[in-house]
Amino acid sequence: MEKRRTSIKPSIEVEEFINLLHGSDPVRVELTRLENEVRDKERELAEAQAEIRALKLSDRAREKACEELTEELAKVDGKLKLTESLLETRNLEIKKINEEKKAALAAQFAAEATLRRVHAAQKDDDMPPIEAILAPLEAELKLARSEGSALSPYIFALVMDEITKDIQGEIPWCMLFADDVVLVDESRTEVDRKLELWRRTLESKGFRLSRTKTEYMGCEFSGIRPVDGDVCLDGQVVPTKDTFRYLGSMLQSDGEIDEDVSHRIRAGWVKWRQASGVLCDKKVPQKLKGKFYRTAIRPAMLYGAECWATKRRHVQKMSVAEMRMLRWICGHTRKDRIRNDDIRDMVGVAPIEEKLIQHRLRWFGHIQRRPPEAPVRIGILNHFENTRRGRGRPRLTWEEAVKRDLKEWNVSKELAIDRSAWKLAIHIAKLQDDNRALDRLTKSKEAALLEAERTIEIALAKAALVDDLQNKNQELIKQIEICQEENKILDKMHRQKVAEVEKLTQTVRELEEAVLAGGAAANAVRDYQRKVQEMNEEKKTLDRELARAKVTANRVAVVVANEWKDANDKVMPVRQWLDERRFMQGEMQQLRDKLAISERTARSEAQLKEKYHLRLKVLEEGLRMSASGARTSVSSRRQPNGGANSGSKANGFLARRPSFQMRSSSTATTIVSHAKGASKSFDGRLVNGSGHSLNGSTDDSENNSDEKINGELSNGESEDTVSGLLYDMLQKEVISLRKACHEKDQSLKDKDDAIEMLAKKVETLTKAMEVEGKKMRREMATMEKEVAAMRVEKDQDIKAKRLSINTKPPAQNTAQLPSARNTPRAGLMRHSQE
Fold first, then answer.
1. Does the pLDDT of residue 593 top 50, yes or no?
2. Which ranges form a coiled coil (predicted)?
3. Which residues, 6 or more positions from 646, have their beta carbon under 8 angstroms from its beta carbon?
4. What does 175-227 look like in DSSP terms, one character per residue?
5. Are strands 232-233 and 236-237 parallel, antiparallel or unpaired?
6. SS (H, E, C) 262-284
7. How many CB atoms sit inside 10 A of residue 644's CB?
8. Cα(159)–Cα(205) distance, rounded to whole angstroms?
9. In this model, does residue 320 exceed pLDDT 90?
10. Exposed, middle or buried by CB within 10 Å (0-12, 13-18, 19+), for 567?
11. Would you tell me how many other CB atoms lie within 10 Å of the CB of residue 712?
């Protein structure tokens, strides 16, 4: 839009210049109008071309999505064909295995027939020698003696069957596999009896049971604890175990499969470690590694899994172990943030949960196809109603697990009779899940395409509104810039007011410190007054003691003189009298020294007292001057305050008050300076005190001390009154300063209110923008509806006219065709102009 306007401006200026030179030319005006129409048509053509390009892009995206879907369908078809070919190959392999089994059974029957002939011939007297009977089988017997021969285990099994044919029981009460024997019964005593019978039978034929490999386990499936006791083998106690291992499976006494699952996982890891050189080789392709895993490691993990009644924790344990193996094969860890499905796609391995279900359903189909007297059918435990169930939740049975799998895979139970149909049903159920996932993916892609078309249409509709919205946005941007400038000015004023408030708080703190210093000085003065009084009292007591000492000395001297004069025997020696006199003179000298020290301290205290009087007078005069100045300032401030507030409210800003700040700061500085000066003089005078000697008599000192004490008391009283006035005046000043701070806070609140009003205005402007945008969207929706309605009308008109063409003569049809073509175009042009 800006480039177009810049290109139009010079042409308009040239046209104005030509019109000024030549006057108004109607041809020129018509030409300019036509040029403008041509430009409009070109703009509409460009918009139509842009719409066509967008539609082409959407068609290409749709075609690409369709191609992807066709490729995915082709892949699925290929997978189906591969599964069908695999099924055919597996069927052929099964046929081969069945033929081999038949051949093995024929050989077994032949061997059994020979053994029967041997036993029958032993009963007859005319029996041929055994060498003649076994002569054709001599080569096979020689081979059977070695451990590596295929006939060795077979002959051992035949011998075991022949020896124990009288003591063998039905399955599952007695199970034989090579040299492994499992004896099952309902009580411990019966198991003990069977074990003793087998021991005696085998020992009678030259065999014996291994005492170290024999184990005993008591089952608690019904919740009833077995009878206490031990199972013995030839007088030796058989060890009792909680787990019983048979043919690679681990059976627990409580019927759970936790130990069997962990044992199978360990077996899988053993196989994996044996093949780690191939699986961890980066040169081997990932698909080949997956194939090796499917054929060598996963069968070891799923051995006996078709008989498990798996719970969620068992499946999770197996899947975790499998994913660890697969991530190790691919060379990734969980820190790489790669999904499990991606890892499986790299290797080409299906989830182990599906394989568990598949194995279970295969075994279920095998059981269903067997006759009722088959050992597989006999081995299924029947639940009786009279048995007592243990505490807690009922255990998950194998039949319930199979029902859950059939319901999950949507497979009918009746298909198990037909082996091929059952196998196909299991594979098809898995493929149906894959097809459902693909259907969901295709539907999501179609929905995404529809949404893309809708977004393209909405974008085309919004393109016409972009210019108007840009103009409105520019206006709003200008308004926002103005509001931002106003906010900057308000921020500056706010900072200034904050600085003023900080200065006022600093002055308040200084005043509080001055008040505290004055209080401390007053307390010091009171302490000194108390000390002076105590010293005066001590002086009085000393004077009294001195007077008493003098009186006692005079009396002693008189008594001694009288005694010395009257009686010759009681004359006092001169040396003793002189010593006592010296002692009394020394005590008198000490008392005189104490009096001199007390007088010195009294004089120094009097000097300090006079200095305090002078300081307090100076402070009182300064405070009187400051209080009068503050009152005048408050009155002068209150008079113009209303006009200032009204002016500030009218202009949208608040006025400043520098006069109060200057006055408050001047008063605070004078008070602080006085306090600092007082503290300095106080400190200096304390150090520079001078001492005086006491040369007068004791009576003069007593009189002077009394006068000084009375003067000090009067000075102390006056000093107390002055310090109290000072404290009150300072309190008043602090209160006035607090009021000023409150007024400043109020002004700041007013500024904040103004800022909030501006913010509200900005919010209203943004809301107005949103409302206008919503209106434009609604208008666009109504316009789309109108266009759709016009298209429907157009289609209906075309259909009606086609019918009329089929019914009316050709002349009328030719006459009506132009009107039918022109009416929708006119409607569309009117819509675009609006």
1. yes
2. 31-86, 466-601
3. none
4. EEETTEEEE--SSHHHHHHHHHHHHHHHHHTT----TTT--B----TTSPPPP
5. antiparallel
6. HHHHHHHHHHHHHCHHHHCCCCC
7. 14
8. 10
9. yes
10. exposed
11. 20
User: What is the C-alpha end-to-end distance of the chain, expressed in Å?
Assistant: 20
For residue 216, what are the β-bridge partners?
Answer: 240
Residue 672 pLDDT > 90:
no
Distance from C-alpha of 203 to C-alpha of 75, rounded to nearest angstrom: 65
Alpha-carbon span 233 to 212, nearest angstrom: 11
Residue 252 has pLDDT above 90, yes or no: no
pLDDT at res. 412: 81
pLDDT of 226: 55
d(CA 397, CA 400) in angstroms, rounded, equals: 5
Predicted confidence at residue 665, as pLDDT, reads 40
Q: In sequence order, what are the residues at sequence separation of 6 or more whose Cβ sits closer than 8 angstroms to the Cβ of residue 726?
A: 518, 616, 619, 620, 623
* Count of CA atoms in the C-beta half-sphere (13 A) of 1: 9
How many other C-beta atoms lie within 10 A of the C-beta of residue 199? 17
Contact 218, 226 (CB under 8 A): yes
Of 469, 487, 483, 486, nearest to 761 (Cα)? 483
Pick the closest to residue 230 from 242, 217, 221, 220 (CA basis): 217
Q: What is the pTM of this model?
A: 0.39
Closest CA to 664 of 735, 737, 730, 729: 737
Helix (H), strand (E) at residue 232: strand 232-233
Mean pLDDT score, 343-370: 86
3-state secondary structure of 568: coil
Handedness of CA 679, 682, 686, 689 (dihedral sign): positive
Q: Which of 239-248, 317-326, 730-739 has the highest mean pLDDT?
A: 317-326
Q: How many residues does the chain have?
A: 834
Q: Are 358 and 426 in contact (CB under 8 A)?
A: yes
Q: What is the pLDDT of residue 372?
A: 80
Q: Is the dihedral of CA 792, 794, 799, 804 positive or negative?
A: positive
Query: Which run of H or of E encompasses 236?
Result: strand 236-237
Q: pLDDT digits over 789-826, tens only?
A: 888 888 888 878 777 776 544 444 433 433 333 443 33
Contact 302, 336 (CB under 8 A): no
Q: What is the DSSP string of 761-814?
A: HHHHHHHHHHHHHHHHHHHHHHHHHHHHHHHHHHHHHHHHHHHHHHHS-HHHHH
pLDDT band at 97 (very low <50, low <70, confident <90, very high): confident
Tokens of 164: 């124990």
Candidate from 219-228, 434-443, 774-783 with smallest mean pLDDT: 219-228
* Integer Rg of the chain from CA: 61
pLDDT digits (tens, 9 = 90+) for 186-199: 888 888 888 888 88
> Residue 563 and residue 482: Cα distance in Å, rounded?
120
Helices (H), 243-390: 258-274, 276-279, 286-292, 298-301, 312-330, 340-347, 352-369, 375-378
Whether the CB-CB separation of 206 and 218 falls below 8 Å is answered with: no
| Beta-carbon count within 10 A of 421 CB | 15
Tell me which long-range contacts 314-321 makes (C-beta under 8 A, separation of at least 24): 314/257, 314/258, 314/261, 315/352, 315/353, 315/356, 317/261, 317/262, 317/265, 318/261, 318/264, 318/265, 318/352, 318/353, 318/356, 319/351, 319/352, 319/353, 321/265, 321/268, 321/269
Residue 451 CA to residue 469 CA, distance in Å, equals 25
Rounded Cα distance between 699 and 697, Å, is 6
What residues form DSSP beta bridges with 250? Answer: 245
